[in-house]
Amino acid sequence: MSVIMKDVTYFATITLAFLCGTRIAWACGRNCQFKVDPKTRKRLVIENLPAASIVYLFGFLIVYSFCISNFIAIVLFALFSATLLAAMVVSMAMPELKRRPDEKVANDGA
């Protein structure tokens, strides 16, 4: 019974870490509007990206502890994975440049 409770706790912690980390990173990416000056966007990313990475780190530490037995490898893999995932989610959430309808490709029918 205790093994089942331990596994349920691990699963809930991993799920919560990934959901909260994604929410932090997604909000950071959505706040980076292109009409805002680059200094403000850079400040937003510098403030929020480490927070999302740390939250992701908890989830990845648990996931990699099931797969790998070396402590240093677990920490390094979790750190790199958390940083890359946070950066990827932030970049995916950034708004796209607006396309103007009057700009068309020169060779539409050709």
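Above is the first protein from milestone M3; the second protein from the same milestone is given next.
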Amino acid sequence: MKSIDIGSLGSDEAFKLRLQIALRYQAVKIRAVSDQPDKFDEYISQRVAAIEKMIGKNVSVTEGGKTIYP
């Protein structure tokens, strides 16, 4: 799997990518404790699609040596 460091991106692109990753991360956490986890599947899929549109498929994202996506 290819890896990209978020620090290598422009500030605007890095912000948008961090935002999508954070939204996906929060949705996954909420889904884990939800009474209706299937309601989050479409939203999570949309976040993943937005991330993949920015960086491509099968790409991990790191920040400061720590993997933040997937």
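Note on the second protein: The chain has a mean pLDDT of 97.
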